[in-house]
Design goal:
The protein is an alpha/beta fold. It is 32% helix and 25% strand. It has one domain: Spore Coat Polysaccharide Biosynthesis Protein SpsA, Chain A, CATH 3.90.550.10. The longest helix is centred in the middle third of the chain and has 14 residues.
């Protein structure tokens, strides 16, 4: 008898207030589709994803959830900070799930291919994250904003999502974060607390997080 399939559930974090944007960035349209709707659809279109957990309030979920999803979707309320929202999402994932992907709802350029490549990397290394290499010149400035020194960009990466982990590892990392009072800004930072290294998966193309109004125009150009 063949072994049972490896189950992957995706947590999409969409509980932020968009205060830096000035309006709800997740409902802003990108080529006619709301940002969060486009993000969720990529996970619905990925054959490797078995179910989704959307961390968002009921109003946002009702307004931006794609119609007629082709796989199970549950909604949970988020917390005051991102790591609390992720913890709420993890709690909603059944214990029999093997892998958990965590993705920012404001990264609508994610693709099913990138999700599957991150999953495959996590199968081989337990922890994986989408990222892209730093190619620009990097400078460190002083408190007044004046450039003071160059920073080598060798082996520097910009972290993105999805980030995919064996479920048991991610659950353990968030328990450790809770116990030591840490507030991880992403899931790689959480598993770092366990001295577990995450393999980085080259996104291949920018997969930016929509944070400021100009990001929408940039994302639209990247998508075209």
């Amino acid at each position: 008898m063949p072994p049972p399939p490896m189950l992957l559930h995706a947590i999409i974090v969409a509980a932020g207030s968009s205060r830096r944007m000035g309006f709800d960035k997740l409902s802003a349209e990108l080529d006619g589709t709301p940002v969060l709707t486009a993000t969720i659809q990529a996970f619905l279109d990925c054959p490797a994803v078995n179910a989704l957990v959307i961390v968002a309030d009921a109003e946002r979920f009702a307004a931006l959830m794609p119609a007629h999803p082709n796989k199970p979707v549950v909604r949970v309320d988020g917390g005051a900070e991102r790591f609390l929202s992720v913890a709420a999402g993890i709690a909603a994932v059944p214990e029999n799930v093997h892998f958990i992907a965590v993705h920012d709802g404001a990264r609508p350029l994610v693709t099913p291919d990138l999700i599957e490549r991150c999953l495959e990397a996590a199968r081989n290394h337990d922890a994986a994250a989408a990222a892209r290499r730093v190619t620009e010149t990097v400078k460190r400035c002083d408190a007044e904003g004046f450039s003071r020194e160059a920073v080598s960009r060798e082996n520097l990466w910009l972290m993105e999502t999805p980030q995919v982990f064996r479920a048991s590892l991610l659950r353990r990392a968030y328990r450790e974060a809770h116990d030591c009072g840490a507030k991880p800004t992403d899931e790689v930072s959480a598993v770092d607390l366990l001295d577990v290294a995450s393999i980085l998966v080259d996104s291949g193309a920018p997969n930016p997080k929509i944070t400021f109004p100009a990001d929408l125009a940039w994302a639209a150009k990247l998508r075209s």
